[in-house]
Design goal:
This protein is mainly alpha-helical and about 200 residues long. It contains 5 helices and 3 strands. The protein is flat, with a radius of gyration of 29 Å.
Length: about 200
């Protein structure tokens, strides 16, 4: 509802209690201010969470791996290969699946779920990477723990990741080749010409 006064239209939020006198709209903070405050609080929370997790996670992960490896080269190499292959291959396959279904009906939701699952499955490799590439005290402490209590783990994880990438490339090649052959057969079948 708006009323016209001598100065032009005035915005009216509602009428007074008696119902005869218009009350002008309140002039509060613009909506963008509230959004900006919310975003700023979120960014500060993420920064705090980063520093807390950066100080905790490398140490925690190196202790978990040390418990698995039990100071044995064979166990360190075994768990490095298992986690390197699984935590690289599965996320790559999930990313591929997300890419494949993104344009189908309901595909966006499926793609988002697949990407989130891929990141979750990749966490062990990401944690190992933070230990290897990290420059803070927690990363150095994690590195020392892996060197002494999980020998061979870091190298085996890297090797497992490379093997997983090769397996993924071969699987994608086979899948894409099969899709192209099916498409060619469909086109040839609709045209009535045999496919060799």
């Amino acid at each position: 509802m708006s009323a016209v006064t001598s100065g032009g239209p005035a915005k009216i939020d509602h009428m007074s209690v008696d119902g005869t006198t218009p009350v002008p709209a309140s002039t509060g903070k613009p909506a963008w201010v509230n959004k900006a405050i919310l975003i700023a609080v979120g960014v500060v929370a993420l920064i705090i969470a980063y520093f807390v997790l950066a100080a905790f996670l490398p140490r925690w992960w190196s202790i978990r791996v040390a418990n698995l490896s039990d100071q044995a080269f064979s166990k360190g190499i075994f768990w490095g290969l298992v986690l390197g292959i699984a935590c690289t291959l599965v996320p790559l396959l999930l990313f591929f699946a997300a890419w494949s279904v993104r344009r189908k009906r309901g595909g966006k939701v499926s793609a988002i779920v697949a990407v989130v699952l891929a990141v979750v499955v990749a966490i062990p490799n990401l944690l190992t990477l933070t230990i290897v590439l990290g420059s803070n005290n927690a990363a150095h402490a994690g590195e020392r723990t892996l060197d002494t209590e999980a020998p061979g783990f870091r190298g085996a994880t890297a090797l497992g990741a490379v093997v997983a990438v090769v397996i993924f490339a071969l699987l994608v090649f086979v899948i894409v080749r099969a899709r192209r052959r099916r498409a060619a057969k469909r086109i040839a079948g609709s045209a009535g010409t045999p496919v060799a």
